[in-house]
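Subject: Interface between my chains keeps coming out wrong

I've been trying for a while to get a sensible model of this assembly. When I model each chain on its own everything looks fine, but I need the whole thing in one frame so I can look at the contacts. Pasting all components below, labels as-is. Any help appreciated, I'm running out of ideas.
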Amino acid sequence: MAQIPDNLKFLDSHEWARQEDDGTITVGISDHAQELLGDIVFVELPDIGKNIEKKGDVAIVESVKAASDVYSPISGEVTEVNQVLSDNPEIINTSPYEEGWFFKIKPQDINELAELLDSEAYKKISES
Amino acid sequence: MKKTFLNKYHHENGGHMVDFSGWEMPINYGSQISEHLSVRENVGMFDVSHMAVFDLDGNEQLDFLKSLLPNDVSKIVDRKRALYSPLLNHDGGILDDLIVYHLGGLNFRIISNCATRDQNLNWFNEISSGFDVAIDFKSDYSIIAIQGPSSQSALGNLLKQELQNFHLQMDNEIMIARTGYTGEIGFEIVSNKTIGQEIWSEFIKLGVKPVGLAARDTLRLEAGYNLYGLDMSIQNNPYDSNLSWTIDLSDDKRDFIGKKALERNKKSDEILCGFYTEERGVLRSGMEISFKNGGGVITSGTWSPTFKKNIGLCRISANHPEKGAALLRDKEVNLYFCETNFLKYLK
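Reply #2:
Try treating it as a single job with all components included. I did that and got this:
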């Protein structure tokens, strides 16, 4: 079974968001998403400083099987991207919630976080 | 959905199951890349029992097959060998590709793709009506493909003698043929379900890793083998699909289905060609290719686990330059045309 940590918020398109102590939001794709995609071989990340909209396409993740857009769970400015993914995209498969994070955002409106799915709601979607 | 006798195994061992032409089959058991590499470097096995097995019966099997197929079955008679051939319609269009096995004596077996099973059964029945031949479709056979450099040692004493490429043995209703679609040394074992279950369990005990259909696809593509339905279809003929070598015209008295049409189609405006890229991102089936004064379309494209780059097959103008371009997410990617056998070309 795919792991769904309790402390994360989710989009129905399988991205997760985590609020960090410094107020930024870290974003990645769920364990369920990496299972659906299979072996990931390539990731295209946004430029730092880019302003993104909630649910706007912001990155691309490509597996042997298919390419897929990654949407942002929240609006704001990209402050950091996970450079490790350029050379080791497969860590998304092995550690989707920790080492395999995609980017960090300085949120425009932190209230957007509450609008996202909690782990229970996301569990229902990913199992349907 | 139809299920093979190994369906329970696949479910209980992490198989990610998908609908493959009406069959519930494992696409992978976790990582298609590691499954792919286990076949290239060591050994892996596939449940391919969804493929269609047709056993022929009757006195005129040889004449029937010589008439049915562009490749000449005379080459394998009395030798217990296997022969690859496309299956053509009267216009020379490719209906499918298959392997025909000489089982000994007058007896032959055909194994073809699963999606084309009904079409082929009807076609075989139609053509065989002119011969003393009956077609026995085996709906519940076990086909296990064990492939990779260590496959021979994994077979152990199942092998009565060393088999050369495309040779086979029949022993107690178990056919073992040194055939496969991965570009590695490998064997395909055809038997009834009970024996198939025993063989599969025995291989598992030996540590042979099961491999899903996703790795089967990347393995065949690296070897430059066509996949029916993607790289060739009824719209194509062997000449424009890299299969001229399967048209055996050495016996000029032999007539076969599609022969006359093929004589008119020897010169083709388009060819099936290999390509690779040096850029990131994967060009896939259906994407258009352009170059000066021509172009074409990608028929199969993947990220190659062996060569760690994008490879594929494409259908392009016969008169093409060394490289072309394709659009990937609004960005132009260069692709370099090459031979289809990437295992030889890129090594």
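Reply #3:
Confirming on my end. The radius of gyration of chain B is 20 Å.
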